C-alpha cells in the first residue's frame, strides 16, 4: 500500500523527512508551495538570514486526486506556530479523499503551536480521518527518533492496523 506524501518545504527540513518516509514506506512525493504575500514576505526575510537556505521547489497549491492511494501523509513546517497557507489550500483542494486515513507531521524548532490541530480540522472537514499526528523537533529529526516514530505510524496504516 503506497501513500500519497504531500508536503511543503521552504528550507529543506520537511522535504528531507518526506524523502526518508518515501524511502522507508514507498509512495509518491507531491511537493506544493504557496507564493501568496505572507509566504513571499517570509521567504524574503529567510533569504537574507545567513543561517537559512531557501528552496524554490514545489508547485502552487492545486487539486490533487488521491483516490488511487490507500492513505495520505501530509507534512509541513511550522511558521509562527501555524501551518503555511499553501498546505492548507492543498488540503482544501484534495479530491478522492473521503474516508481515507491521514498521518500528519510538522517540523519545527520545538513547539508546533496550533499547526497539528489546524491541519486535523482541515483534514476532517475533507472527510478523512486523522490516523496519527506527530511534531518533529529539529533534535528529533537529527537523532532519527522523530522520523522513526513517523515511519512507524505510517507503516501501521500501510498494514491496515
Could you describe the 3D structure shown?
The longest helix is centred in the last third of the chain and has 14 residues, at 145-158. It is built from six helices and five strands, in the order βαβαβαβαβαα. The model has no long low-confidence stretch (mean pLDDT 85). With 161 residues, it is α/β, with parallel strands linked by helices. A five-stranded parallel sheet has the order 2-1-3-4-5, sandwiched between helices. It has a single domain (3-158), classed as Rossmann fold (3-Layer(aba) Sandwich). Helix 1 packs across helix 6 (145-158).
Notable characteristics:
single chain; 161 residues; alpha/beta; Rossmann fold; five-stranded parallel beta sheet; 40% helix; 20% strand; globular
How is this fold's topology laid out?
Elements: E1 3-7, H1 13-25, E2 28-31, H2 37-47, E3 71-77, H3 85-93, E4 101-108, H4 115-125, E5 129-137, H5 138-143, H6 145-158
Parallel strand pairs: 1-2, 1-3, 3-4, 4-5
Helix pairs in contact: 1-6
Offer a concise description of the structure.
This protein is an alpha/beta fold and 161 residues long.
The rounded Rg comes to 15 Å
What is the helix/strand order? EHEHEHEHEHH
Mean pLDDT: 85
How many H/I helices?
Answer: 6
- Residue windows where pLDDT falls under 50 for at least 5 positions: none
Helix content: 25-40%
Any idea of the CATH class? Alpha Beta
The number of domains:
1
The biggest beta sheet, please? 5 strands, parallel
Ends: how far apart?
12 Å
Mass-distribution shape: globular
Amino acid at each position: 500500500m503506497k501513500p500519497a506524501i504531500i508536503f511543503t518545504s521552504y528550507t529543506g527540513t520537511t522535504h528531507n523527512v518526506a524523502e526518508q518516509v518515501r524511502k522507508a514506506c514507498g509512495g509518491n512525493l507531491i511537493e506544493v508551495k504557496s507564493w501568496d504575500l505572507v509566504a513571499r514576505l517570509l521567504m524574503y526575510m529567510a533569504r537574507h538570514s545567513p543561517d537559512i537556505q531557501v528552496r524554490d521547489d514545489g508547485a502552487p497549491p492545486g487539486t490533487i486526486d488521491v483516490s488511487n492511494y490507500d492513505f495520505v501523509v501530509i507534512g509541513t513546517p511550522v511558521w509562527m506556530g501555524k501551518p503555511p497557507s499553501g498546505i492548507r489550500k492543498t488540503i482544501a483542494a484534495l479530491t478522492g479523499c473521503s474516508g481515507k486515513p491521514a498521518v500528519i507531521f510538522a517540523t519545527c524548532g520545538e513547539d508546533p503551536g496550533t499547526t497539528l490541530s489546524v491541519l486535523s480540522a482541515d483534514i476532517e472537514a475533507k472527510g478523512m480521518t486523522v490516523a496519527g499526528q506527530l511534531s518533529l523537533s529539529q533534535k528529533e529529526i537529527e537523532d532519527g527518533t522523530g522520523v522513526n516514530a513517523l515511519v512507524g505510524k505510517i507503516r501501521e496504516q500501510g498494514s491496515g492496523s
